[in-house]
Amino acid sequence: MAFNPADVKSLMEITSRPELIFVKGEGSWLEDQEGRRYLDIMQGWAVNCLGHCPPEVVQAIEHQAKVLINPSPGFYNQPSIDLANRLTSASCFDRVFFANSGAEANEGAIKLARKWGQIHRNGAYKIITFDHSFHGRTLATMSASGKAGWDKKFAPQVDGFPKAIMNYLDSVRELIDDQTVAVMLEPVQGEGGVIPADMQFMRELRALTREKGILLIVDEVQTGMGRCGTMFAYQHYGIEPDIMTLGKGIGGGVPLSALLCREEVACFEHGDQGGTYNGNPLMTAAGVAVFDVLNAPGFMESINERAQYLSDGLNKLSAKWGMKGERGLGLLRALMLDREDGNAIVEAARTRAPEGLLLNAPRTNLLRFMPALNISKEEIDLMLSWLDELIAQVRQ
Ligand SMILES: *Cc1c(COP(=O)(O)O)cnc(C)c1O
């Protein structure tokens, strides 16, 4: 069936979408309404960590949908208990609150830090965040984000998010005052262009926040759940934060996110936090299925092996085309272009014949790769060889 623009008129126009309707997905492949196939290296912005329609997740949802969808967040349900226990066992955190999106989990983290500041720091409420960071699209999380121009959109902002410079500890130190309650960062800035925190910076930041008696919050909405080659990216740095948020990969494609904290920080009182869908068994059952695949023996090692393989391949491409190398952690990587033709490459990739390739350029001089964590070496090879042809095509 051909695409008819009149069919989509009822949808609010919030971004420029290509004239395609996707109807099917399996693993690293998507199929549109005309039966064309696409190798998907975006996976819903790092959301489908096990690819499209992974059997484990499909089965968990099927089963759970038949037995219990929503008892109410005011009651316990087994899948949410199971997932919370798995997450606390695998991390340095003791308590979990489930939510439905990354932004909502981050809102919860901001509220939790402010509450902790009311109790322990004399009402301190400021949370230091970073230039080029991305924390979501609610009013508070947009204010926390360091995206250019976002301070003016939907003004007035939510107050209390001074911006420091990533990987520059003095810029954090200078902003800390008696109103500061926390520092919040992405271990690898994703939307900002795949910029990892330096090992030394992360460790010194942990030491500094301890010394000043303030909280360290890691936004692992993009970096968590194996994306960076450890279950959580903070583990790569050998530090222990006070608060962490998860989203994207945690549900393997369904709306699920989480706010985690250590016992000492778990200071919400009844009525402070909640939400209609929070911790519902349908989504948390999917989360349990995802977690068990990621946590199986050897899975993290295999991510790191293929991450190295992808990194080597990108470096070769970069050398061949005179680009500026690649960077990233695990299977969250970027190829740094030597010119501003990222969008042209993305466009050429999507319209490639006979099969398309779905890529993302968070900046015009950068391509971002966030494939399914179970992408095969053959699929990586295919992507690299297509990319080579596409660069030749765009730059001819
Ligand atoms: C995607 C993302 C968010 C927002 O998540 P939503 O589910 O879109 O609300 C927040 N923080 C980071 C680091 C992200 O990558």
UniProtKB/TrEMBL annotation:
Binding site for pyridoxal 5'-phosphate: 102-103, 134, 219-222, 276
SUPFAM superfamilies: PLP-dependent transferases
Principal location class: cytoplasm
Recorded metabolic or biological pathway in which this protein acts: Amino-acid biosynthesis; L-arginine biosynthesis; N(2)-acetyl-L-ornithine from L-glutamate: step 4/4; Amine and polyamine biosynthesis; ectoine biosynthesis; L-ectoine from L-aspartate 4-semialdehyde: step 1/3
Location of the protein in the cell: Cytoplasm
InterPro entries on file: AcOrn/SuccOrn_fam (IPR004636), Aminotrans_3 (IPR005814), Aminotrans_3_PPA_site (IPR049704), Class-III_PLP-dep_AT (IPR050103), PyrdxlP-dep_Trfase (IPR015424), PyrdxlP-dep_Trfase_major (IPR015421), PyrdxlP-dep_Trfase_small (IPR015422)
Modified residues annotated as N6-(pyridoxal phosphate)lysine in this record: 248
Binding of N(2)-acetyl-L-ornithine, residues: 137
EC number, as in UniProt: 2.6.1.11
Cofactor(s) annotated in UniProt: pyridoxal 5'-phosphate
Coiled coil: none
Key words of the record: Amino-acid biosynthesis, Aminotransferase, Arginine biosynthesis, Cytoplasm, Pyridoxal phosphate, Transferase
GO molecular function term, any single one: identical protein binding
KW Magnesium (keyword) present: no
Catalyses which reaction(s): N(2)-acetyl-L-ornithine + 2-oxoglutarate = N-acetyl-L-glutamate 5-semialdehyde + L-glutamate
Further comment: May also have succinyldiaminopimelate aminotransferase activity, thus carrying out the corresponding step in lysine biosynthesis.
Assembly and oligomerization: Homodimer.
Family: Belongs to the class-III pyridoxal-phosphate-dependent aminotransferase family. ArgD subfamily.
Descriptive protein name: Acetylornithine aminotransferase
Organism: Advenella faeciporci
